[in-house]
């Protein structure tokens, strides 16, 4: 193609994506995957998409997800108690993008400007994450699963300090340091900011009621649990569970949507009734919920998936299914299968789904060989009157080498 034509095509694509979000996978309850662009919200809170040249309105309870997000690898991140993750802006001066007092946490963000949160709404501040996506994910998971009764400061060298409360102060040289009060009577411990990896606030006994309807991903890498979303060509407004409203530029700031509704039951939110792994040699592997088998994010084609199961071949995961008389009876099992990006171009897996009717198991699905680098393969299995569901991942070429198998968005509908 001549250089002039190449420039014209590139300009046309850029113009399209500037005026409306480029088409991404749209998953709706009870329907096959489609490609759609998010164009905003309606007056009643419905989500508006463009599929080809047709406009479609989607209620929250109809949506599974739209698009997928890129895992955040930036240093600074604020984690709220409701699970929202807000990426902090890079500071040109080298100072951190957050401030901490006894009552407030101030976050400087690229997309939403400066936002002040009540300290009680903040779970953790990730100041300097370990290098690498896997190490970062494991570090953050460790922070969020800890249940501390005191404020905790984690240093980049691995040391951990706990005290009554932690704040940020200015030193005599105009540099910021973290001050940790060990007890009410002892002299506070002062730690230079450059040594801080993360700060975790003490947990409270009060549990939050999940009122959010959507998980919204924005172009700066933030993932937010929101009660309501307003988006059009002129404005973006996100109401969080902590009654704060974040304002962005317009609908183009949104690059990911996932619904939270009762019409979807993710297997990663359920307890399995049986799990077996048969090593090809001698290395045992456990399955992971909402993570790949290594403990990193579920990621395929450089896109991250919030929900799913990570296993290693050869494995079998079984789940019980609600009976026909149950208030919530699901009609089908839906997922996409792939080899995680962590395997590179390696790995080769055959995915199978079995259903149990009475005392007998029957194969309901078997994939071709799925290899590392392949696009996710969507699958749908009608459940009918099955009482159990089993997911099998078997090795194909080269034994089980790099067989990091992902059941993406594995769910009952």
Features of this protein?
single chain; 413 residues; mainly beta; SH3 type barrels; Jelly Rolls; 3 domains; ten-stranded antiparallel beta sheet; six-stranded antiparallel beta sheet; 2 helices; 46% strand; globular
Strand content: over 45%
Poorly predicted sequence stretches spanning 5 or more consecutive residues: 1-19
Strand order of the largest sheet: 4-3-2-1-5-22-18-19-20-21
Mean pLDDT over the residues: 88
From the N-terminal CA to the C-terminal CA, the straight-line distance is 46 Å
Question: How many strand elements?
Answer: 36
The SS-based structural class is mainly beta
Number of helices: 2
**Compute the gyration radius: what is it?**
23 Å
**Biggest sheet architecture:** 10 strands, antiparallel
What is the 3D form?
globular
Task: Estimate nothing, just give the exact number of structural domains.
Answer: 3
Q: Please bin the fraction of helical residues.
A: under 10%
